[in-house]
Amino acid sequence: MNVALADRAQRAAKPPQHLADLSEPERDSWAESLGLPRMRARQTARHYFGKLERTASCMTDLPAAGRDELVATLLPPLLTRARQISADGGRTVKTLYHLTGGAAVETVLMAYPDRITLCVSSQAGCGMGCPFCATGKLGLVRNLSAAEILEQVRLAARACQGGIFGGQKRLTNVVFMGMGEPLANYKALTRAIAGIAGQGGSGFGLSARNVTVSTCGLVEPMDRLAGEGRPVRLALSLHAPDDPARDGLVPINRRYGVERTLAAAYRYYEATGRRVSIEYALIRDINDQAWRATQLAAKLCQYGTGWVHVNPIPLNPVPGSIWTASRPSVQEEFLRRLAAAGLSVTLRDTRGADIDGACGQLAAKEVVRTNG
Ligand code: SAH
Ligand code: SF4
Fold it and tell me: Which residue, 59, 104, 227, 344, is the most exposed by fewest CB within 10 angstroms?
């Protein structure tokens, strides 16, 4: 095997099993298989989820003999912080982590007056190949485990508690808008949502309503998620209302087409009562024409206006790409047409654009640096 292949194989290697990968009954069985009382798994989970703790010396209710080994087994280290940078006057903090095996992922933590939102990664790289996206350029390195996703949340929640934004604050929202396609890593995603929204010793206790899953539009998993009985918000990255344009921007569209994708998004709204967000990166002269805004409005309004909220965002240009953000006047007209059709529309803020804030850009840079 040549060096690059060996390196890729190492980065794709599975992480060790962690308590947060398992359901409560599975945790009990794991403790038993280690020759321990079930209670040990529950006690450890209470420290992990309830106190955001994974340091053995803090867990004084566990017997001192064997405590270090127990914690090292149930809560193995999964993420190593590699870099942290802040922007927007300290209100946006981006962190790059290395996973076991060396793959890189990133999170972005954003403080607003009424909430603190963490953007998490669900995969290292992504296999969906959207040409405007830095993560897409990497290809899929590997799926993250549920515990690797939950570790991103735990570390951010601890940072908020510890005063990263001044004073003791609480992490309130989680959005799956970092690296990766969450619905292509379904089992880990749903286990992670259970860990984020679980109460007491089985989760971090956030509201499921404050969790957003963003997808490029995988129809079958969208339907499956609708049936999970958790009221998480769905964001659909549409980026074009017509198949010719969407086929180029979001290649998975060649499998489903815009109509089927929108129908699945509407079913999600019907099943959960949660308004679906439509994400639309405005790319100059590619998908930002006024007639496309009219077409987008017509396609969305075939199901009415109350089920959906449109979130256009100026493209954050990926280095080396010829595409760039729309002109302000064009952007304005695009939004005006959507609003005129009775749709609720907000231009998404571009937090952290100056620190490669968009999807995967920091980690993509890191890969270029380490490989090149
Ligand atoms: N794979 C999922 C979630 C991660 S991407 C998805 O595609 O929805 C999160 C969001 O960032 C998506 O809406 C995606 O289209 C958008 N995005 C990716 N690259 C971008 C860029 N360069 N500028 C603006 N938005 C971008
Ligand atoms: Fe993957 Fe989303 Fe990027 Fe497309 S936009 S390549 S689905 S991370």
Answer: 227
Domain ranges of the chain: 17-74, 80-370
Contact residues for 63 (Cβ-Cβ < 8 A; gap 6+): none
How far apart (Å, rounded) are the C-alpha atoms in residues 372 and 366? 10
359 is catalytic: yes
For residue 359 and ligand 2, the question of a CB distance below 6 A is answered with: yes
Among 1.10.10.60, 3.20.20.70, 3.90.550.10, 3.40.850.10, what is the CATH number of 80-370? 3.20.20.70
On the question of a common fold for 17-74 and 80-370, the answer reads no
Q: Which of 110, 121, 177, 211 to mutate to test the pocket of ligand 1 (most atoms within 8 A of CB)?
A: 177
pLDDT 10s digits, 200-252: 788 999 999 999 999 999 999 999 999 999 999 999 999 999 999 999 999 99
What's the longest Cα–Cα distance across the chain? Answer: 70
- Residue 126: active-site member: no
For ligand 2, say whether the CB of 159 is within 6 Å of any of its atoms.
no
CB 123, CB 144: distance < 8 Å? yes
Strand partners for 325: 283
CB atoms within 10 A of CB 247: 16
* Residue nearest to ligand 2 atom 4, measured at CA: 130
pTM over 0.90, yes/no:
yes
Antiparallel, parallel or unpaired: β 116-119 and 104-111: antiparallel
Cα dist. 11→2, 226, 322 in Å?
A: 14, 32, 30
Strands 344-345 and 308-314: parallel
Which CATH fold topology does 17-74 show?
A: DNA polymerase; domain 1 (1.10.150)
